[in-house]
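Before we proceed, please read the two lines closing this message. Report back on whether the structure tokens fit the sequence:
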Amino acid sequence: MVGIPWVHLVGAYLLLGSVISGLGLIAKIRWSGYDKPIFPNSKTKVWFAIGIVLGVFFWYLPLIEQNQRYRQHILSLDVKIHEQERLARQLKTAIDSVQNDPRTLERLARERLGYARTNEVVIRFEARR
């Protein structure tokens, strides 16, 4: 019983108990030879219905919880997808500007590579330690 959640056991117990009690009533009525209704009073009908509903509820409760976890995971993945799409747009814009704008290419060459035009002096400042 290690792999079976306790809610499944409770649901199965309630569902099985309701079905067995209902079948017991049917069998008792058929064996007795009387032509009585299956459920002798409305109280039995109500308890039978409550047992069935609770059994189904407890049977599907783990699936409902798993569905909620999946939905939360999907929402977090959607957030990550939107962040990656935003980053992709920024990178595409940067690539387009480097490929199509000579001023951007010149600025990057000056900043990162330390290039200068003829007759220009490059002064570098170092941060204090």
